[in-house]
Specification:
The complex is a heterodimer of chains A (about 110) and B (about 120). Chain A has about 110 residues and is mainly β. Helices cover about 0% and strands about 60% of the residues of chain A. Chain A is built from no helices and eleven strands. In chain A, strands 2, 4, 5, 9, 10 and 11 form a six-stranded mixed beta sheet that branches. Chain A is globular and about 40 Å long. Chain A starts with a strand and ends with a strand. Chain B is globular and about 40 Å long. The mean pLDDT of chain B is about 95. The chains are: A mainly beta (about 110), B mainly beta (about 120). At the A-B interface, strand 4, strand 5, strand 9 and strand 10 of A face strand 5 and strand 10 of B.
Chain lengths: ~110, ~120
């Protein structure tokens, strides 16, 4: 059974900082991994999708890496902004479903 | 190019009533998934459907819950005789292929409150 853990559970940083969110998973037999953002009371917005054969993906200020053999992914956010405040979810695709971590709640203070 | 559409956005039901949640997948997607997010908890898989077929329902509670994805129309998640513990956000996602090679797209969710 796949288990996904995200560290830290919460993070509060001043605006402008670069930060790293961590995700680990127990079963390396994955199709791909997706990072999502969830704002309070809202749905999930896909940020980055990394295929199992890839090492990293970039979109704007976001960079996600994947080390499948060690069961780890990181989401790097450069030059954080108050608008980045949200919960960030790591989700591992085992082929017929996503398994989610509990999320990292990020607050970026002006 | 509408994304995944869920309705209603908010649903209030009294204990014992039935709740019906609807989901229309993204255009071109024929694979639908339902997830539940209980208050202060993470998202949990419930069921995976393809047109007219249930592929994986291992995450569905054994009683009172059912799901369908008919040939025509949206996918429906049905909860009979709702109880307070069913209060949660229910999210639908869709994918283009089995295995979700291009990832999953989520709807905005239906927030069910049982009073």
């Amino acid at each position: 059974k796949q288990e996904v853990t995200q560290i830290p559970a919460a993070l509060s940083v001043p605006e402008g900082e670069n930060l790293v969110l961590n995700c680990s998973f127990t079963d390396s037999a994955i199709y791909n991994l997706q990072w999502f953002r969830q704002d309070p009371g809202k749905g999930l917005t896909s940020l980055l999708l990394i295929q199992s054969s890839q090492r990293e993906q970039t979109s704007g200020r976001l960079n996600a890496s994947l080390d499948k053999s060690s069961g780890r992914s990181t989401l790097y956010i450069a030059a954080s902004q108050p608008g980045d405040s949200a919960t960030y979810l790591c989700a591992v695709n085992g082929g017929s479903r996503l398994t989610f971590g509990e999320g990292t709640q990020l607050t970026v203070n002006p | 190019n509408a994304g995944v559409m869920q309705n209603p956005r908010h649903l209030v039901r009294r204990r014992g009533q039935e709740a019906r949640l609807r989901c229309s997948p993204m255009k071109g997607h024929s694979h639908v998934y339902w997830y539940r997010q209980l208050p202060e908890e993470g998202l949990k898989f419930m069921v995976y459907l393809q047109k007219e077929n249930i592929i994986d329902e291992s995450g569905m509670p054994k009683e009172r819950f059912s799901a369908e994805f008919p040939k025509e129309g949206p996918s429906i998640l049905r909860i009979q005789q709702v109880v307070r513990g069913d209060s949660a956000a229910y999210f639908c996602a869709s994918s283009q292929d089995r295995g979700a090679t291009y990832g999953y797209t989520f709807g905005s969710g239906t927030r069910l409150t049982v009073v």
